Amino acid sequence: MIAIIDYGxxxxxxxxxxxxxxxxxxxxxxxxxxxEQADGVVLPGVGAFDDCIKGLEKSGLVEPIKQIxxxxxxxxxxxxxxxxxxxxxEEGEKAGLGVLTGRVVRFRHELKIPQIGWNQIAKVQDAPHxxxxxxxxxxxxxxxxxxxxEDESIIATTTEYGIExxxxxxxxxxxACQFHPEKSQAAGLKILDNFRKLxxxxxxxxxxxx
Amino acid sequence: MLAKRIIPCLDVTEGRVVKGVKYVDHVxxxxxxEQAAEYDRQGAxxxxxxxxxxxxxxxxxxxxIVRRTAEQIFIPLTVGGGTRSAEDIRQxxxxxxDKAAIMTAAIENPSLIDxxxxxxxxxxxxxxxxxxxxQREGEPVGNLGYDPDAEIEWQxxxxxxxxxxxxxxxxxxIEAEQRGAGELLVTSMDADGTTAxxxxxxxxxxxxxVGIPVIASGGAGSAQHMxxxxxxxxxxxxxxxxxFHFGQMTVGDVKxxxxxxxxxxxx
Lengths: 210, 267
Known about the structure:
heterodimer; A: alpha/beta; Rossmann fold; two-stranded antiparallel sheet; 29% strand; globular; B: alpha/beta; TIM Barrel; eight-stranded parallel β-barrel; 34% helix
């Protein structure tokens, strides 16, 4: 089972439908116990940084999410679900989860903000989540802020929008992307399917090990 | 590079797609869920459903269409028409839409934009602007093309283009952005349904006055018209109905033609 973390008003329907489409059993939840039981955990995110953190705090999910990530369970962050993995953002006052080091900054250029629409990813490294995804694939973005990881070795893809920015990161069990795979047609569904496979594999190897 | 978006629009009433000329004379143009799937196959970047005769009676039908479409289509879906309140928007988003377009309700109660953009995120609030050139009685509309020196004013019309207001379209666009709109869907009522081209000055003046994306709507009859809206009109996306509905061109045809003219599109 894949758990989608529910922390408030976020629109989780499209993530849920896309994961089901690639064959996942899905549970939308704000219960730490359900996250514990899941084979993989998805943190989607729309809205503002502080609201997201407040929502996670209110549901008592901050520590459980950190533990899930530290414990090695496949974890997928989407959009704001990428940004909150960092210690903080220019957008808000609240502290982020601090799982990754670096900054979340706002676009500073004359182009339209938010960036809304389809843009291309350039692969910097071969994350298993990007298996069978080519550099140059189009994915759907909606955002005004982007991440600047301190450790550049975690950058999985970059994208051009006035500047070249980090459009996804990969570190061990964590993959998180600024774009929306659930809205990115074939390429996005492929990323979700890759995530599903990783979750199933790890869950099965645990079972055999146990 | 960010691609310009091509967005087929399905005008829906009582569960069927319809297409009218200048907001009247609707012709039946098919089943919305089937058409949505077809546009997805053709490479549409997003889809829009506008419930043109929205009423409480029709809403459950619309929500059902949104739900069935969202189950099989993984590109962004915007739904509008008759969205009166934050609760309406919540229902639309829950049914699987990614964005809700608001129009009449936003004019009547502008704080609805503030309320819903802070509650659901700006990215799901599209403020739709139906604008008509202000003219003296009997005066012809004339040229809707590029004309930067022309003195033109546009008035907002509400209730699906049936009621004029005193609101200036350009001022309203700026206010909508300040209140938290994520995008503007700008429809020229003078051009809509004519397939003679978009109102380029309306688009250009709004797009250059705001920092959020502008979706051009009303008047598309060819890829050339879209090219003009995206270049001269400075639009970020083009929405079109008639050109696609009656099979004159596919989304793929339009994109190929735009790419050949140097526009960044997702192929």
